[in-house]
Each structure stands twice: as structure tokens, then as C-alpha cells.
Design a protein that fits this description.
By secondary structure, the chain is α/β, with parallel strands linked by helices. The chain has 16 helices and 17 strands. The protein has two domains: 2-66 and 368-416, Urease, subunit C, domain 1 (Roll), CATH 2.30.40; 68-354, Alpha-Beta Barrel (TIM Barrel). It has helices at 44-47, 89-103, 106-122, 137-145, 162-177, 198-211, 223-233, 237-243, 261-269, 278-283, 291-297, 316-331, 339-346, 348-354, 387-393, 421-438; strands at residues 2-14, 17-28, 31-37, 55-58, 62-66, 68-73, 125-132, 148-155, 184-190, 215-219, 251-255, 273-276, 301-303, 371-375, 400-405, 408-412, 415-416. The strands form three sheets. Strands 1, 2, 3, 4, 5, 14, 15, 16 and 17 form a nine-stranded mixed beta sheet that branches. A four-stranded parallel beta sheet has the order 6-7-8-9, sandwiched between helices. A four-stranded parallel beta sheet has the order 10-11-12-13, sandwiched between helices. The mean pLDDT is 95.
């Protein structure tokens, strides 16, 4: 498919910083083939022969930007939305979420993931980094939705126990089964130090090195986790993970709410990316991660929602807004974590964390066409004083009207073309009714 997006304001990167320029973009199959910047001397009509395209999108009063990257979520949890609210972290996890997961079938996980992808697409996310429990389900849903994904089978276990071995085997089985899927990649996902003992973390680290796979893990999310880790291993969770070898290759740490200055030094030294999840961390009473300090030290920080059971949304526009506001308020500094930093965290920083920054995360010739188009004729975007600021401080995600992933139209005029909305709603409501009946 050959697409032409004509005469549109765009978020480009100039010396690593977001800027707005008016351009026309040629998309050939999955690649951004050409970007024509508009000027008096450079007329788009003279530069492009429009008759050669399968589809032309008029960019008048529109804005195009890289698709957002949700760098930490659990998509299968979408059917658990609003089922475990107003609870302390461990009560939420072990008192509500874990019992629902024990009842969850493969089909439940599949439909939960589809609901998550529907929501992410409709709010401008084109790629997500997922930790899941039921192999093949999230992967199949991602393939069908057209989204780009990095998927990790959540791993829990101790030493050489059979459960831990089985989960690691499942992770490799899923990776092998989907090896022909160009939009899907795989990491290993040791859940956390309180669900994986020291020996098991070392086994996972060794496997990741052997298979050249990244690591995706929760660390330093709650005070209790940090306290117990120090008592058991005489180290913070981040120090402990480093001691177990988890940071020897590509690694992504979700949360890091209680990262110390020494933790931050380790993260920078080991080139570990951190995914901050402000809504989830606040909702579960876990607090605010030291994001300004991480940014100051040069840690690659990106943005995630966590799962819908703890957020309860998967909307990165909402997350960018929270990200900017909470750190300004917490630090009492209005210039702390500004709008452009938030945009980078939701786009190119996420791509860097996943090892995909040469393919996605910015609008550039030769990169994959993972793009979203927003309608500027919306109250939240008017007047157009500063479009980049409006994306963080006033947009809510409903302004996204077109989504292109891998050069394919996935959503057009707010209609998702790859998923059946009504069927998804029917299925997830049936899951909850069944679980309530079985309770």
C-alpha cells in the first residue's frame, strides 16, 4: 500500500528535540519513504505525483506524530478493570488480582488483551511492551490487531523448581512459534524479586544472555518490596537484580519508585531503561519515582500505563499529563519534567528501551510508518498556541482519528479496522459474569 499524507503539521526531531514543521509524507508499504518539508521554494505539488498513491490523506487542520509506545503493561488484565480498586499494593495483588488470574483461561487472556489493544489504538498507542501469563494469547491478539509488540511471559520460580523451568520453556516456545511475525519481538520477564528467588533470577539472566533476549522486570515498586529485599539479600531490589546478572544485556525496569542515588548510578552505568507508570504508582499508594533525578543522570526513562487492573486506563496521553504534573508538584518546580521531555519518553525513549529506535519512535525517512494523526479542530487543541504543549497538558487521546502501523491503516475516522468492538465488549463482560458466578 502506498499512502500520501499531504500538507500536515508534524512532530519531527531536530537535534534530539521535538519540533513542529509542515510536511508531506510518502509511505511506501511499511516504510516512511520521503518527507517533503514545505517552503515557498519547495512546493509539494511539484515534488510529488499524487496519482501514484493508493490513498491520499489531507492533513489540513491535522497533526501527525510518532505512534506512542506503552513501555510497560499487562494487556490481558483489561477485563479486570475496576475490579480491585482502593486497595494497598499487596492486598490488590494477592487479595484480588491473583485470585482472578487463577480463574483465568487462555481465552479470557486473549479477549482481555484484545480489549487492551482496542483502547490503546483508539488513544494513539502503536507499540506496547507486555508481560503476560498465557502464552500465545497476547501474541495472537497483537497479530490480529495490527499492533507492534514486545512480549514477555511472566516468570516466577525458585532455583531449579519445575514450575520455574516450565515457564521458561513456555517463553522460548512462544518466541519460536512467532519467529516469522515481523511486528512481534520477545523479552524474558522475571516478575520481581519477591516472586523469583536469587537462583532463579540467575538462571533467567543466563538464558537471556544465551538467547540475546532483553529482560523486563518489576523493581522497587513498593516500600514493602524494598524492605523485604534488604532483609533477605542485604541489597535494594535494583542492586540485587544487578548482582544476579540481569543487567548484563538489554534490560527494562518497571516502576523504580524507591530507586536510591546508588540505584540510579547502577541503572546509568548498566544502560538500563526505566519505565515510569505514574497513575498505577499513585493509585496503589506507592508514591512517585525519582524521575527528575534519573533524567539528570542520563538514565533512559520511558512511559507505561501498567495494566488496567491498577491504572485503570491504557491511555498514554493521560499518562503524559500526570507525568508532567505530579513531578512539578512533588518537586515544587514548574520547569520540572516539561512537555517535550514527556513526549520523548512516550516515543523515542520507549523505542530505545525496546531496541527499536532505528525502526520506530520518530518520523524519519527509512523508519517504519508507525504514525498517528490527530484532529486539531477539537476544543482541547484550540487555539493552536503551542501544539507540543497541548499534546501533554490538554489532549485526552480522543483527538486521535487515524492510526497507521507498519504502513497499514489500523484506525480511520476513529473506527478501528482490525478489531470488532462489540464482540470484544460482549466477551469481556461474559468473563466477569462467569467469574462472579464462580466466586
Amino acid at each position: 500500500m502506498k499512502l500520501f499524507v499531504k500538507n500536515i503539521r508534524a512532530m519531527l526531531l531536530k537535534e534530539g528535540e521535538p519540533v513542529v514543521e509542515t510536511v508531506s509524507i510518502v509511505i511506501n508499504n511499511d516504510i516512511i519513504e520521503k518527507i517533503v518539508k514545505h517552503s515557498i521554494e519547495n512546493s509539494v505539488e511539484n515534488a510529488i505525483e499524487e496519482s501514484t498513491f493508493d490513498k491520499i490523506i489531507d492533513g489540513t487542520d491535522k497533526f501527525i506524530m510518532p505512534g506512542l509506545i506503552n513501555a510497560h503493561t499487562h494487556s490481558y488484565m483489561a477485563f479486570m478493570r475496576n475490579c480491585a480498586d482502593d486497595l494497598e499494593f499487596l492486598d490488590w495483588l494477592f487479595g484480588k488480582v491473583d485470585p482472578m488470574e487463577q480463574k483465568m483461561t487462555d481465552e479470557d487472556a486473549y479477549w482481555g488483551a484484545k480489549l487492551a489493544m482496542l483502547e490503546m489504538i483508539k488513544s494513539g498507542t502503536t507499540c506496547f511492551n507486555d508481560m503476560q501469563m498465557n502464552i500465545h494469547q497476547t501474541t495472537n491478539a497483537a497479530i490480529e490487531s495490527g499492533m507492534r509488540a514486545v512480549i514477555a511471559r511472566g516468570l516466577v520460580g525458585s532455583g531449579e523448581d519445575e514450575g520455574g523451568k516450565m515457564r521458561l520453556m513456555q517463553a522460548m516456545e512462544e518466541k519460536e512459534a512467532a519467529k516469522e511475525q515481523a511486528r512481534i519481538a520477545f523479552f524474558l520477564g522475571p516478575h520481581a524479586p519477591y516472586t523469583c528467588d536469587k537462583d532463579y533470577l540467575k538462571i533467567v539472566a543466563k538464558k537471556a544472555k544465551q538467547e540475546s533476549m532483553g529482560i523486563h522486570i518489576h523493581l522497587s515498586e513498593s516500600e514493602t518490596e524494598v524492605k523485604n529485599c534488604k532483609e533477605t539479600y542485604q541489597a535494594t531490589p535494583i542492586e540485587h537484580a544487578n548482582n544476579c546478572g540481569l543487567f548484563e544485556g538489554r534490560a527494562i525496569v518497571a516502576h523504580a519508585v524507591y530507586a536510591t542515588s546508588e540505584d540510579i548510578r547502577i541503572l546509568k552505568e548498566k544502560n538500563v531503561s526505566v519505565v515510569t507508570n505514574p497513575a498505577s504508582n499513585m493509585k496503589l499508594g506507592n508514591g512517585f519515582a525519582p524521575i527528575p533525578e534519573m533524567l539528570e543522570e542520563g538514565v533512559n526513562v520511558c512511559l507505561g500505563t501498567d495494566g488496567a487492573a491498577s491504572n485503570n486506563a491504557l491511555n498514554l496521553f493521560h499518562e503524559m499529563n500526570l507525568l508532567a504534573l505530579i513531578h512539578k508538584g512533588n518537586a515544587r518546580k514548574a520547569k520540572c519534567v516539561d512537555a517535550t521531555t514527556c513526549l520523548l519518553m512516550a516515543t523515542i525513549n520507549g523505542a530505545k528501551a525496546l531496541g527499536l529506535d532505528q525502526q520506530i519512535g520518530s518520523i524519519k525517512e527509512g523508519k517504519k510508518a508507525d504514525l498517528i494523526i490527530l484532529d486539531l479542530k477539537q476544543p482541547s487543541m484550540q487555539p493552536m498556541n503551542n501544539i507540543l504543549s497541548s499534546l501533554v497538558y490538554s489532549a485526552n487521546g480522543s483527538e486521535v482519528e487515524t492510526v497507521i502501523i507498519d504502513g497499514q491503516l489500523i484506525m480511520e475516522n476513529r473506527k478501528v479496522l482490525t478489531l470488532n468492538e462489540e464482540e470484544i465488549y460482549e466477551k469481556v463482560n461474559a468473563i466477569i459474569k462467569r467469574m462472579e458466578k464462580d466466586a
